[in-house]
Amino acid sequence: MGIDEKPPVTLLDNLARHFHFEPPREHGHHTVEAIQTMLRDEVKVLLALGGNLAAAAPDTPLTCKALRRCGLTVYISTKLNRSHLMPGKQSLILPTLGRTEEDVQASGRQFITVEDSFSMVHASEGIGKPLAATQRSETAIVAGIAHATLGTAQLDWLALAADYNLIRDHIAATIPGFQNFNSRCDEPGGFWLGNAAAELRFNTPSGKAEFSAATLPDAVCPEIVAPFVLQTLRSHDQYNTTIYGLDDRYRGVYGQRDVLFMHPADIAALGLSDGDRVDIETLATDGVIRRVADFRLVAYDIPRGNLAAYYPETNPLVPLTRFGDGTGTPTSKSIPVSVTPAQTRATRRIA
Fold first, then answer.
1. Which of 325, 328, 300 is nearest to 230 (CA)?
2. CB atoms within 10 A of CB 246
3. Residues 6+ apart with CB under 8 A from 164
4. What burial letters (b/e) apply to 165-183, b meaning 16+ CB within 10 Å?
5. pLDDT 10s digit of each residue in the chain, 351 long?
6. What is the CATH number of domain 228-341?
7. Domain residue ranges of the chain, discontinuous segments joined by +
């Protein structure tokens, strides 16, 4: 909560008032800027609270190179993942409790809160037994690092780790909409965080809903004539980079993920057939070859000239240098690519 590389002034003011210190006012880095900073050897420590940056970020080989250039990488993780294989000059993996595991601290059993897609906030308490008594919660790990680094002059970090209610009290004092946070967590089904627009309250200079239009570009990459534009997407059996299964009942794909969705007429125009294997290569002007190999064509009802494939398998095709104006969001939905029949490659299979 409150994690933002460009935190709003009101949040910083609330933190300064409540905790009696002056927080940094300069902006931090979004994902692309952070990776670029790592490549310039300007990152001493990367502390990752969960996640799988090596798989989630664009330009996979370059991202992996960036991670290995950090002085120290620290991963607070519930399970091993690809990022752990890309250590900095020194690296730590700190196993932590998952949300489904019981979290018992000095004051007793703890719960956290989650917000669903309907702006409902409710308590979440794990019931599974941890694998080892030495496992710590993410809260306890972060508070322990803060205690060792900052001491207790401003805040009793270990007390926060011992009783999460204290953390929610601080949230209530600094984040709008969370007044009486702890007591509201007892409401059956949680409490509604609110939505100004749903109540016809518009936080605009005019006090009214304001609409704007953006001109569509003639091409996603004007300097290149690309036969296809690729978008990356998730399957049904997937949450972010966590893949729970190989099926996608949304699109009728089962038991595989290395597939490329293409309009049947485009497949025919290439002299190929549904089910053929192809290689996909990004068309770029920076001289870097970005290619993924041996994907199976799937005939699909998609506009001609457009392609779709799953990520993170196709993240190597997304250039780190291409991102949205003003947002820094990688252009994972508009990648200019070419498609060619898969090259025959040596296999290690023995049967």
1. 300
2. 14
3. 105, 110, 111, 112, 139
4. ebbbbbbbebbeebeebbe
5. 888 899 999 999 999 999 999 999 999 999 999 999 999 999 999 999 988 999 999 999 999 999 999 999 999 999 999 999 999 999 999 999 999 999 999 999 999 999 988 889 999 999 999 999 899 999 999 999 999 999 999 899 999 999 999 999 999 999 999 999 999 999 998 999 988 898 899 999 999 999 999 888 777 777 788 999 999 999 999 988 889 999 999 999 999 999 999 999 999 999 999 999 999 999 988 889 999 999 999 999 999 999 999 999 999 999 999 988 888 899 999 999 999 999 876 665 554
6. 2.40.40.20
7. 9-198, 228-341
Residue 248 tokens, joined: 């996608």
Q: How far is CA 70 from each of CA 62, 81, 142, rounded to the nearest angstrom?
A: 13, 18, 20
pTM of the model as a whole: 0.88
Q: Which residue has the tokens 């070859």?
A: 289
| CB neighbour list of residue 216: distance below 8 Å, 6 or more residues apart | none
For residues 175 and 106, the answer to whether their CB atoms sit within 8 Å is no
Q: Which two tokens stand for residue 198?
A: 């749903």
**CATH 3.40.50.740 matches 9-198:** yes
Structure tokens at 264: 């049947």
Exposure of 141 in the CB half-sphere (CA atoms within 13 A): 22
